[in-house]
Each structure stands twice: as structure tokens, then as C-alpha cells.
Design goal:
Elements: E1 6-13, H1 24-38, E2 49-53, H2 57-60, H3 66-74, E3 82-85, H4 91-104, E4 110-118, H5 124-132, H6 147-162, H7 166-181, H8 194-199, E5 202-204, E6 207-208, E7 217-226, H9 230-233, E8 238-247, H10 262-275, E9 284-286, H11 292-301, H12 310-315, E10 326-327, H13 332-335, H14 343-355, E11 369-376, E12 381-389
Parallel strand pairs: 2-3, 2-4, 9-10, 9-11
Antiparallel strand pairs: 1-7, 1-8, 4-7, 5-6, 8-12, 11-12
The chain binds coenzyme A.
Pfam families: Thiolase_C_1, Thiolase_N
Protein name: Thiolase domain-containing protein
GO molecular function: acyltransferase activity, transferring groups other than amino-acyl groups
């Protein structure tokens, strides 16, 4: 049994946004082809296993069994199989974790991990129902709770307990839109001002339109190999130091503290310990800002700042490029976009570019250690990954 490490040798991302020009399989292919151009001496036919993260293609594009479907379109016949992972918004993070486990266990040495979601094709009412049934249909969704409403409760509580202000939420959105302007693949490549944020329409108090991640289409891809072979396929591979996951249940009743996400604290603590690093060593992080309040809580629960200081952390510019830890340099879910299944893998695409020094105008100088955090459901399911440059 091989219990070494896996490494990223190729990454690809489709353009995110309303992609009327591409079907689900075409979006996936866009990201996959880019990842094979990024790697060297490896072809789609060489991969042994394919894992596809896609949250609800049955409802969004009326198609199931999407992993074999995408393999057929790519002309790939993986000898160790193809399968789909569904874990709501954390589908991508879980798919990467499965791929890492397959490689470290010796089951496969080359795994293709693809994330894809096409959310803009179905009628909007169908999309909203699809998103809301991630919650407990019988006990919660049926009463009308949606993702914005759930995260609004966390925002209200954080404001009450820690004095977090509307401006703090707004500064997360302003930062992430500014980063997205520098990312050619982002959905919203435009800066916003704090006043524009304040004037945006209310969604679920205190959250406004510009606190929310959008409904969007997109795909992402990562080629993982065992770290010992990685230099054959890329001059600058990125090592997976650890990927952990913690789940506490599904309904919001399992979250006993709206402002400290205990499963995140637990997943992060294990990820740091397995990687042998402390939060202060993280140079760049892609975290799950499905709503701006989530990014503020995540600064705290990932240990970037103390509990209750998340608002001040963004206000002081500590999460901006050039700050203590650059967070969501891609534009994050807020401004790059959040095609559900693609998100967790897209986070690793950005971290890989950053650690290789290839992030262009949004490059974090001297980035050595990167972190990803992918969340599913009402903050009930968390995946944390730590990545480093191969020395
Ligand atoms: C916030 C939300 C309700 C807005 O939906 P909507 O009111 O139907 O908005 P529309 O799609 O009709 O877009 C209206 C305008 O707002 C813009 N817009 C939509 N969502 C936006 C967002 N999140 N940020 C910035 N602008 C946004 C659109 O581009 C459009 O602009 P235009 O008029 O200049 O073309 C919807 O994006 C949403 O539900 N987001 C959360 C998704 C979610 O829950 N994901 C899972 C997270 S756990």
C-alpha cells in the first residue's frame, strides 16, 4: 500500500458565467483539455480513474450518470473506473479527497478530477427549489428556508455577538470583485464600491444582492498523480499536504453555534496537524464565500484571526493581496462564480497557479503554502486542503 503523497500536475478551468454556448459535457471538456495542455507527457487515455463532482445535474440539466457520460465524450476508458461525487457545494472538495485517497492507497496513480455544474439552463424556480432541497426537505426547505436566509441568520448572530457591521460584509464583496477583475475566467470582472454594495437590493436581511454568490455555469479540472512521479508531468508540481473533511448532519438544527462552525474548526485543525503547519504559515487561501458572512467566519475558524475579529481582519486589509493571508485571489465564489460542483476543484486550480507563481496580476509574492476550504449545506460539511510547492 502506497501511503506517500499525491501531487497536482495539471489544472484547467472553463470560463465561468452564463454559458449558453456550452452544454454540461462541453463545459467539462473545456476544463479537461486545458489541464492536459498544462501537464506534460500525459494524455486523457493515460488516466486510470475519473471522478466527477456535480451536485444536481438530474434537476439542472436532466442528466444523471454524468461521470461515464463525460468519459465517453473525452474518449477516456479509465481502467479503475469513473464515478460521480455529490456533496452539495462541497462536491468538488470531496472528489479531490477521494482522488488523494485513491492515490495514497495505491489504487491508482493518475486520477482526473473534474467539477461541473450548469445552473442557468433550467427555469429559475427550478434552480431555487434545487438549491433549497440541499436542506432537510421535510423539516426545513418545505417552510421556505433558502441558502441566503440560512446564512443571513449567521450574519445577524455574528453582528449581535461581535459587533460585525454591514461595512465589513461589504468589504469582503469589494475585495473579491477587485480580485475577480484580474481573473480572465471570472463571471463578474468588475470592481464594485462600498456605496454600490450598500445600495444593492435586499435578499435576506442583512444580506443584499452583493453579499451573494451567483447562479452560474462552469467547470474545473485537476490531474493528480503520485508525488514521486509528478516531475515527469510538470516542472513545478504542487503537493497535496493534507485534505480533511468533517460532517455533523444536514439540518440547521445540528449547528449548535451559528458563529463558530465546529466541524470547520475540527477539519482545519486536523489538516494543519497532518500538514505539519500552523495557520500563520498559510500565504494564500481560497475559502467558501458563498455569502460574505461565510468568509468572515472562515477567517476566524481557520485560525487566520481571533474569534470575532473577522470583520476587522478584512477592514485592515489583512485578507487582501499583500495582507497577512491573501484570501480568494480568484474572486472567490462571490465574483468568480459558484457553479456548485466545480467550486472545490476551481479553488485548487487557483492555489496551484499561485504556488507556481503563474497567477498574473493577482499573484501573491512568494506564496509557498496554500489552503482551500469548501463547504456543503448549511455549514454542516467542510473540506479543508493544504497544498505546498514541491521542494
Ligand atoms: C442572489 C440571487 C437571489 C440573485 O438572483 P436574482 O435576483 O434572480 O438575480 P438575476 O439572476 O435575475 O440577476 C439580476 C441582476 O443582478 C446581477 N446578479 C445576480 N446575482 C448576482 C450576484 N450574486 N452578485 C452580483 N450581481 C448579481 C445579474 O448579473 C443581473 O444583472 P443585470 O441586470 O445587469 O444583467 C441569486 O444569485 C442566488 O440565489 N444566489 C445564491 C446562490 C446559492 O444559494 N448558492 C449556493 C450557496 S450555499
Amino acid at each position: 500500500m502506497w501511503l506517500g503523497k499525491s501531487a497536482v500536475v495539471g489544472v484547467g478551468l472553463s470560463k465561468f458565467g452564463k454559458r449558453e454556448d456550452a452544454s454540461l459535457r462541453e463545459l467539462a471538456a473545456e476544463a479537461v483539455y486545458e489541464s492536459f495542455q498544462d501537464a506534460r507527457d500525459i494524455e486523457p487515455g493515460d488516466v486510470e480513474a475519473v471522478i466527477v463532482a456535480s451536485s444536481q445535474p438530474e434537476r439542472l440539466v436532466v442528466q444523471s450518470h454524468v461521470a461515464p457520460l463525460i468519459c465517453e465524450y473525452l474518449g477516456v476508458k479509465p481502467s479503475k473506473g469513473a464515478f460521480r461525487v455529490e456533496s452539495a457545494c462541497s462536491s468538488g472538495g470531496v472528489a479531490l479527497r477521494m482522488a488523494d485517497i485513491m492515490i495514497r492507497s495505491g489504487e491508482a496513480s493518475k486520477v482526473l478530477v473534474v467539477g461541473v455544474e450548469k445552473m442557468t439552463e433550467a427555469p429559475r424556480s427550478e434552480v431555487m427549489t434545487t438549491l433549497s432541497i440541499v436542506g432537510d426537505k421535510d423539516w426545513e426547505s418545505i417552510h421556505g428556508i433558502t441558502a441566503p436566509a440560512g446564512f443571513a441568520l449567521a450574519a445577524q448572530r455574528h453582528m449581535l455577538e461581535y459587533g460585525t457591521k454591514e461595512e465589513h460584509l461589504g468589504l469582503v464583496a469589494v475585495k473579491n470583485h477587485a480580485n475577480a477583475e484580474l481573473n480572465p475566467k471570472a463571471m463578474f470582472r468588475r470592481r464594485i464600491t462600498l456605496n454600490e454594495y450598500k445600495d444593492s437590493p435586499p435578499i435576506a436581511k442583512p444580506l443584499k444582492l452583493l453579499d451573494c454568490s451567483p447562479i452560474c455555469d462552469g467547470a474545473s479540472c485537476v490531474i493528480l498523480t503520485d508525488a514521486e512521479d509528478a516531475r515527469k508531468y510538470n516542472d513545478t508540481p504542487v503537493v497535496v499536504k493534507s485534505i480533511t473533511q468533517t460532517t455533523i448532519g444536514n439540518s440547521s438544527t445540528t449547528v449548535d453555534d451559528l458563529t463558530t462552525w465546529k466541524p470547520l474548526v475540527e477539519a482545519a485543525s486536523r489538516a494543519y496537524s497532518l500538514a505539519g503547519i500552523s495557520p500563520k504559515q498559510v500565504d494564500v487561501a481560497e475559502v467558501h464565500d458563498c455569502f460574505t458572512i461565510a468568509e468572515i467566519i472562515e477567517y476566524e475558524d481557520l485560525g487566520f484571526c481571533g474569534k470575532g475579529y473577522g470583520g476587522r481582519f478584512v477592514e485592515e486589509g489583512q485578507s487582501a493581496i499583500g495582507g497577512e493571508v491573501a484570501v480568494n485571489t480568484s474572486g472567490g465564489l462571490k465574483a468568480k462564480g459558484h457553479p456548485i460542483g466545480a467550486t472545490g476543484i476551481a479553488q485548487v486550480v487557483e492555489i496551484t497557479l499561485q504556488l507556481r507563481g503563474e497567477a498574473g496580476k493577482r499573484q501573491v509574492s512568494g506564496a509557498d503554502i496554500g489552503l482551500t476550504h469548501n463547504l456543503g449545506g448549511f455549514a454542516v460539511n467542510h473540506v479543508v486542503g493544504i497544498y505546498g510547492r514541491m521542494t
